[in-house]
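User: Continuing from earlier, I have the next pair ready.

Assistant: Great, send them over.

User: Here they are, in order.

Assistant: Folding the first of the pair now:
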Amino acid sequence: MKSDIELLIQHDNKIYAPVVQEDIIWSTERKGTPGMLEFKIIYDLDFNVSEGDAVRFRVNNCNIFYGFIFKLEHDKNRIISLTAYDQLRYLKNKDTYVYENKTASELIKMIADDFKLQCGNIDDTNFKIESRIESNISLFDMIQNALDITLQNKKQLYVLYDDFGKLTLKSLDNTRVNFLINENSAENYNYSSSIDSETYNKVKLTYDNEKTGLRDVYIAKDSHNINKWGVLQYFEVLNDNINGKSKADALLKLYNTKTQKLTVKNILGDNNIRAGSIIVVFMDLGSIKVKNMMLVEKCKHKYRESEHLMDLTLRGGESIA
């Protein structure tokens, strides 16, 4: 089935629709990386293209990508290879922030305002971070630190992405896509499960209490999984003593499970799927049956005139931080 593909480049006040060669690749990752669009065009004397030009990409009247050209490569065949990033690219800027009593949502809006970034729907993360000093780190890291603190205290994961030129923050509950993967869906796949990283069945938090002169200790553990796997301990020194027991319980609930990873190659594409989406996986692998929701960690869409395929890296289990 032929796709209606529209790719436009704006240079100064002019908008061009270049002749695109080969595939158009749209890639996203769940955290710390901007969305990226890669494509090749034929050099044409009738239009100019340069770094900073805006790129708009739509398929079958569906908004896919809006961003800006950051890289151009020319070859002897007069083909120009271009790489564009969405707004998240500007979160790679470094700075220093000191803030108090803000949610991660409020931090994102503050940074967006300071750096003149456009915001769309920002879910309320509903957890006030008492105080934080972020010194000489990327804006990506500042925001991720706030989201990690929220996750550890509220056991709620949020996904930050650019939605066609608008910074968007959604809770994981709002990222589900009606899409099923089974063992016949992909050209190839690889599945693994592990307790080797980000799996903990005992959580130990300590806080040096200046008022009492004692060290407060908070422990949460799962004796069943300790007998099954041995002791896998998460340890952290707290900077404040707010809800230490609740945080230990939340961390145990978050990390007390094995992790599952699945990669699939050349699966039929769906424009609604991006890094951060939740989809259904139902695979009969012989010795094991996988039937659960999984989180898309990485997503690569490959568009050509009559075909749309995806490569996905997914993660399952509770430990998806």
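And the other member of the pair:
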Amino acid sequence: MSSAKGKYIALTLILVVIVVGIAAYYATSTPSTPQISHVRFMAGVSGGGGYQFGTALIKVWQNRISGVTYTLEATQGFVDNAKKMCGGVGEFGVVSAGEALKILRAEAPYGNCTSKVYAVFPLLPPTYFHVLVPADSPIKSMSDLNGKRVNILTRGSLTEQLAAQIFNVLGINIAPTYLTHTDAAIALSKGEIDAAASTTFASQYKELSLSKKLRVISLSSEEVNKIKNALPHLSFETFDFSTQYEGSNPALVPVDWTLVVARSDMPENFIYNAVKAIYENVGPLTESYPQAKDLKPELLLKAPVPLHPGVVKYYNEKNIKIPDQLLPKR
């Protein structure tokens, strides 16, 4: 071997070692880039709380996480979101805690899901199931809804599911309609329906209350006990609905947790960055979704659904203690 050829080979080997060393250094010393480039957010009914919250979250992420595009998808509701995510459609979605737990436990109708889901954020305000009627309506109690035209939102929505469960427990037979918030508000204003059930404070009803006074039906203690016995995952709270609907009233209603969840196969670092971006920018988030002013990491610990590993990583960094039952199953 000539001296020149030997020097060339030696120089080549040195360069290879240098390149490999640089690659190894950056692989271990710099944050990994997102492993996904497109995120679909299953939001729920257009105009509802899940849709509004999803819009606000995406706005923050677009400004804080580069290299990722986001699609906000209107669906038939939170139950529909759960079914879609069970089938692998959507990286994020708004679902009820009850449906998320069914997916994790592989309970019907979620026995063959492509992936599980874990909690990321709570939806604020909490899910107050409530029934709106015109203030001058003769309907004064839940039992008065028997035989009446009651909108329970679109098929597959959380509102439809809770309404069916609660009315069944109370022995109330309604004439259901399945209108969107927009169509239901119009129908209620014209007297085409007698009442409208909701699990969010939709803007359409807020706007309607400015021209037509609305009242929320309050549960009796007997009704609360019946629902508690049949649906133990629900809690109950007296909420002042005048804070949401102009001139409305305080009412005792069922409360359920609704959450933003992520598929369990979403990269831990991506979820960590997504969570960090939100909690470090609650101000901008609140500009788009005012109810987020009360968003704190600790709120999610009140819900019964285990946290995504990326959320756990962020909470550990902030020294927030997580109950064992909320840790994801590896």
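Worth noting for the second one:
The chain has two domains: 38-124+258-326, 127-256. The CA atoms of residues 129 and 199 lie 5 Å apart.
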